[in-house]
Amino acid sequence: MAHHQSAKKRIRQTERRTDVNINRVGRIRTFVKKVELALLAGNAAEAAAALKLAEPELMSGVSKGVVHKNTASRKVSRLSARVKALAQA
Q: Domain 5-88 - what CATH class?
């Protein structure tokens, strides 16, 4: 256990930041899941609209440091390819 006041404060800050970051990641997952569900349903218009909302959410996670830049780019790329394939089919 921490003995210094600064170490105790750091523990409190870390706990708060962890909660915020967990919520951010959960929010990103929710937006991505909406795209996935629209793709499974075969609804191209709904999938495209959901992707348009999910992309800035992923990039926001990158700027906040909860998701790596390449990970977010890969997810957007793969989702957009699936949405595009569904729209063409």
A: mainly alpha
Q: How far apart are CA 53 and CA 4, in angstroms?
A: 45
Could you tell me the residue ranges of all domains in the chain? 5-88
pTM of structure:
0.89
pLDDT, tens digit (0-9, with 9 covering 90-100), for 38-85: 999 999 999 999 999 999 999 999 999 999 999 999 999 999 999 999
User: Nearest-CA neighbor of 46 among 56, 55, 36?
Assistant: 36
- Measured in residues, the chain has a length of 89
For 12-48, give the secondary structure using H, E and C: HHHHHHHHHHHHHHHHHHHHHHHHHHHHHHCCHHHHH
- Per the CB < 8 A criterion, the answer to whether 32 and 79 are in contact is yes
| Residue 2 confidence (pLDDT) above 90 | no
